[in-house]
Write a structure and sequence with these properties.
alpha+beta, binds adenosine-5'-triphosphate, five-stranded mixed β-sheet, binds magnesium ion, Actin, Chain A, domain 4
Length: about 350
């Protein structure tokens, strides 16, 4: 007990959402102190040039000797070394906001990972965090962290459904009595929606666009359900035949059609999780409904579509992009890392 108190006094407690699109870091008693894209820019000598926001700006715009890399793919580590660099940068950044004596010991870390990753992938995350400077590392499942983060009553003997739609993955979980009762994960998230837009622009407008432009189109005029005020957007890219830059007009309606295929996969994941639920817990969802979190939850009309497809009430959490990291933060504040 005394030992734990000492460790707690001389080290920083950190919660991390290591996401495919964004990484967030929570420091005990300080809140969310890092919120940056999961991107690292390196040159041809493997020297790191930028991490996070600055590196994301370089995506698709780098000269030949520079690469902007997204080291996480489908919610798991795709590039070990780069993930480690990124983690170390974010951990160090987080530690700048604590007093010097809390930097004497290595930080204790709670890190959220997708619920359906393999034991090997789980160990890889732990190892990467340790190499990046962590002391104790505790792994929590992302949907559980998200559910805690959005304030669902996870401890009660009652079913609650959380759907976390991230950049690389969508995770659906039904939680009761602090445990996951039914779950379904698919490797489809916001990135797949961006890719669908890139394809659509190629096929229908002969226009090549980059990932970042596709993401902007999705955010500005994308939707999952017909809107009252569908917008039109001017999009710049490169003509596929003439290879010269051009501008075309795209409508919200056509983008919605382009997004339908990946969105159907997300809706299907919700259906499968519902199907796996014991009947009494499924019945609880008629009242408690479905809570959406993650950046994908912000897509216009997605709540309405899922509600129509399932017949259940659907809510979008207040701060969907912060749900997972807030959950790890609540776990830190409750000393979960020491009790384990
Ligand atoms: N307003 C918006 N409309 C639609 N999509 C959005 C919006 N804002 C952000 N997104 C998308 O949300 C995704 C990022 O969400 P989030 O940060 O939750 O993912 P992540 O946690 O990094 O990924 P994962 O959980 O899969 O590892 C991106 O694909 C981004 O384009
Ligand atoms: Mg996530």
């Amino acid at each position: 007990m005394l030992m734990q108190k000492l460790i707690r006094f001389f080290s920083t407690d950190i919660g991390i959402d290591l996401g495919t699109a964004n990484s967030l870091v929570y420091v005990r008693d300080n809140g969310v102190v890092v919120n940056e894209p999961s991107v690292v820019a390196i040159n041809d000598k493997s020297e790191v040039l930028a991490v996070g926001e600055d590196a994301k700006k370089m995506l698709g715009k780098t000269p030949i000797n520079i690469k902007a890399i997204r080291p996480m793919k489908d919610g798991v580590i795709a590039d070990f070394d780069i993930t480690e660099v990124m983690l170390r940068t974010f951990i160090q950044k987080a530690q700048t906001c604590v007093p010097w004596y809390q930097r004497l010991l290595r930080p204790s870390i709670i890190i959220a990972v997708p619920s359906e990753i393999t034991e090997v992938e789980r160990r890889a995350v732990k190892e990467s965090a340790k190499k990046a400077g962590a002391g104790d590392v505790m792994i929590v499942e992302e949907p559980m962290a998200a559910a805690v983060g959005v304030g669902l009553p996870v401890y009660e003997p009652r079913g609650n459904m959380i759907v976390d739609i991230g950049g690389g993955t969508t995770e659906v979980a039904v939680i009761s009595l602090s445990g996951i009762v039914a779950t379904k994960g698919v490797k489809v998230g916001g990135d797949e929606l961006d890719r669908a837009i890139v394809q659509h622009m190629k096929r229908n407008h002969n226009l090549m666009i980059g990932e970042l432009t596709a993401e902007q189109i999705k955010i500005k005029i994308g939707s999952a359900y017909p809107l009252e005020d569908d917008k039109v957007l001017e999009v710049r890219g490169m003509d596929m035949n003439s290879r010269i830059p051009k501008t075309v007009k795209v409508t919200g309606e056509e983008i919605r059609r382009a997004l339908m295929e990946p969105i159907t996969v997300v809706v299907e994941a919700v259906r499968i999780a519902l199907d796996k639920c014991p009947p009494d817990i499924a019945a609880d969802l008629i009242d408690s409904g479905i809570m959406l979190a993650g950046g994908g939850a912000v897509l216009k009309g997605l709540d309405r579509l899922i509600s129509e497809e399932t017949g259940l009430p659907v809510f979008v959490s207040e701060d969907p992009l912060n749900a997972v990291v807030t959950g790890t933060g609540i776990m830190l504040q409750n000393d979960l890392i020491y009790r384990n």
